[in-house]
Amino acid sequence: MNCFDPNSTPEPGKPVLLVVAVALVDVDGRVLLAQRPEGKSLAGLWEFPGGKVHEGESPEYALVRELREELGIETAGSCLAPFTFASHSYESFHLLMPLYVCRVWEGTPRPLEGQKLAWARPNDMGQYPMPPADKPLVAMLRDLL
Ligand SMILES: Nc1nc2c([nH]c(=O)n2[C@@H]2O[C@H](COP(=O)(O)OP(=O)(O)OP(=O)(O)O)[C@@H](O)[C@H]2O)c(=O)[nH]1
Ligand SMILES: [Mg+2]
């Protein structure tokens, strides 16, 4: 029962925001992290590439689009393996974020939106400050890679 925290009771009333994200894994088992640029919420924190699922999009469609927009790479829905998800309450919304793993894409990731990029070994990810929602995901990636 060591998960029991009476202060963690789920509360209704916040909008649920669906965001898709991906761990791009290279041949050395490193994962691509992107630093959120100035002016965005959570600026300066490192995150998995991705973004909001727009009206009418499937999660895979949205992720392929985000990877094209943010990094200039192409991948296919068939290269996106569902891995785990984050469910985390922020101040004004509740984040629901499926995390995919992708090892196959075309092109070299480039920072097209002014973000910094870093290839991080799962064991080194502790050195990259990440949003609170991402912490459990990092632990699961360590087990996978
Ligand atoms: N992409 C991404 N978003 C995350 C992660 N962790 C996390 O809490 N988020 C939150 O998910 C929300 C949406 O992400 P986003 O700002 O990248 O959305 P977006 O690419 O569509 O940007 P835009 O709305 O400026 O077009 C943000 O509130 C962000 O803080 C993560 O690892 N990756
Ligand atoms: Mg984004």
TrEMBL record:
InterPro entries referenced in this protein's UniProt entry, alphabetically: MutT-like (IPR047127), MutY_C (IPR029119), Nudix_hydrolase (IPR020476), NUDIX_hydrolase-like_dom_sf (IPR015797), NUDIX_hydrolase_CS (IPR020084), NUDIX_hydrolase_dom (IPR000086)
Annotated EC: 3.6.1.55
EC supergroup of this enzyme: hydrolase
GO terms for MF: 8-oxo-7,8-dihydrodeoxyguanosine triphosphate pyrophosphatase activity; 8-oxo-7,8-dihydroguanosine triphosphate pyrophosphatase activity; 8-oxo-dGDP phosphatase activity; 8-oxo-GDP phosphatase activity; metal ion binding
Domain of life: Bacteria
Entry similarity comment: Belongs to the Nudix hydrolase family.
Stated name of the protein: 8-oxo-dGTP diphosphatase
Native species: Skermanella aerolata
Gene: mutT
